[in-house]
């Protein structure tokens, strides 16, 4: 899979980030919340990212 960084909240590697893949999908890097109370299947996960990351990606026409 080819991964391209689209947008991040900072320039280092441990910040919330959105990546595009050559599969036509997005990868999202963010915190793993533990206090959500949801039942998530074992093959899935949740990540939490700041709303400003999505707003920046939309404003910059990246997604």
Structure, described:
There is one protein chain. The protein has 63 residues and is of the alpha+beta class. The protein has one helix and three strands; from the N terminus they run βββα. The two termini are 19 Å apart.
List keywords for this structure.
63 residues; alpha+beta; three-stranded antiparallel beta sheet; 3 strands; globular
Short description:
It is built from 1 helix and 3 strands; from the N terminus they run E-E-E-H. The protein is of the alpha+beta class and 63 residues long.
**Proportion in β-strands:** 15-25%
Low-confidence stretches: none
Rounded radius of gyration (Å):
13 Å
Q: Biggest sheet: strands, sense, closure?
A: 3 strands, antiparallel
- Shape, principal axes of CA atoms: globular
**Helices and strands: which structural class?**
alpha+beta
The N- and C-terminal alpha carbons lie at a distance of: 19 Å
Number of strands: 3
Record the strand order, biggest sheet.
1-2-3
Indicate the mean pLDDT: 92
Count of helices? 1
Indicate the percent of residues in helices.
Answer: 10-25%
What letter string, H or E per element, gives the SSE order? EEEH
Task: Give a topology summary.
Layout: E1 3-8, E2 17-21, E3 26-29, H1 51-59
């Amino acid at each position: 899979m080819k991964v391209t960084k689209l947008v991040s909240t900072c320039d280092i590697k441990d910040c919330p980030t959105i990546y595009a893949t050559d599969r036509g999908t997005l990868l999202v890097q963010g915190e793993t919340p533990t206090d959500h109370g949801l039942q998530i299947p074992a093959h899935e996960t949740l990540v939490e990212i700041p709303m400003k990351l999505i707003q920046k990606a939309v404003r910059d026409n990246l997604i």
